[in-house]
Amino acid sequence: MTKxxxxxxLAILAALIGVYLILPVLIVVPMSFSDSSFLSFPPGQMxxxxxxxxxxxxxxxxxxxxxxxxxxxxxxxxVVLGVLAALALVRGxxxxxxTITAILLAPLIVPYVIIGLAAYIAxxxxxxxxxxxxxxxxxxxxxxxxxxxxxxxxxxxxxRRLEMAAMSLGAGPVTTFFKVTLPLxxxxxxxxxxFAFFISWDEVVTAIFLSGPDxxxxxxxxxxxxxxxxxxxxxxxxxxxxxxxxxxxxxLGLTRLIRQLARRRVTGPATNTGA
Amino acid sequence: xxxxxxxxxxxxxxxxxxPLRLSRWLRFDGxxxxxxxxxVFLVLVFGLPLVVMLSRSLxxxxxxxxxxxxIFANAVYPRVLGNTFLIAAIVTVVTLALAYPYAYLMTxxxxxxxxxxxxxxxxxxxxxxxxxxxxxVLFLRDTGAFNSTLQTLDVIDQPxxxxxxxxxxxxxxxxxxxxxxxxxIFATMQGIDxxxxxxxxSLGARPAGAFWRIFVxxxxxxxxxxxxxxxxxxxxxxxxxxxxxxxxxxxxxxLIVQQVSxxxxxxxxxxxxTLLLLTTFLLLVVAGRFVDLxxxxxxxx
Lengths: 275, 301
Prior knowledge:
The complex is a heterodimer of chains A (275) and B (301). Chain A has 275 residues and is an all-alpha fold.
């Protein structure tokens, strides 16, 4: 009896926590469609005027393009560096392994305010603030641990005999990597890349330090839109950002599913011929 | 002839202490060397600026510890530091109180519900902090969803002030921190053999007794990782306290940005950031003796 009561209590608590977790989404999405300019609640009349606002104002488009460029470049850098490092961590002999792993994971722990300030101070002297390169360098640091974590998880489950088979049939290490290993770990590489993309696309804190009249990313533009006065356009932008993120996750989920189905097709006939 | 030479040489080696060869220690094999590009990149782009910042805190405007003395010379700044620790501690306690039962329920329910509960945790994980904090401002402000709902229902006459208060900051920061706490706790709980609980109960323990004396201690490693992660991250929050907190709840992150953007005291901001960095580092080193944070970070995703 007490067990049932405890479970029921737990379930209610969990339901409340669940609502709390998605509360921001529940708030922002309906409000972005509201006609009122004060984002009042309840939203009242529906309207798309804030979405029109985004398209009318070049500030939003420009900063979105700047963000896109930075996010694409830094996720590519993060994937290349991260995959190499993950291969080393799983396969290689590395001296001072724990220290090196700690360095690779440090950007996950060090507060972004510190990273932003340090980069700002250092980049001012190099003229790298307000440049795409400066943003890409910093965002690659922030994103690369996510790639490493994802790819390490993928690599651990790779059957090395497949690689050995390829090598014994005459493939060199590079060919083996691109023809055998990479296709096997592709889902985790893609997941890592997607993580990296969104770390950069979303990132505000270091971006506030690095932004200026010459280059401002979308989150920083949104930040100033919130700070000065509550601008409902930001709600519409938030909805769009949410759409992009969840859209990509659905795409990633589908790719995984397709890959799994494809793999099943491949292993099917292979076992048949073996028998 | 050759064998004799070898013998004598090994004999000589045995007699003397082996020479310390650094190159041998630092040897990466072919695979291991692949870590070098990232390592060099991080040292240059991530590590070097931190060193530049540290030196700036000691040299700007003049050489010495003046900036660090300034932090404690004025009553305002120690209060911000105290606030930062207090808020981080409250956030950690509240987060743990919510994350633990949530993670526990995740281990009890079936696979479908578990996926749903996990999905709910991952939604905020992948919603930008800016969007979330902005939405919580809309929710908590005087004319926001929370207050206007209560007013329409005639529960309250006047809106309860939530935004720019400690409650507001904690509400927002816990929302941000929850996923980071639920995931390591859930991962640890999933590894607990539930037959141990059955064994305890079959030996006469009441379910509650079995839970507190067996399950809770076994889940401690996940809890410790969650507490450490939540607290360390909470120390450095900027966006959420800046939007939801008032002037009384200023945290060190806001102070750092303020010093750079409005008063241009780079050296002082660098000193504050160095202080925060050292605190974080110290916490990790001390707690690292008890918590395998690397393991928890590596399986975060």
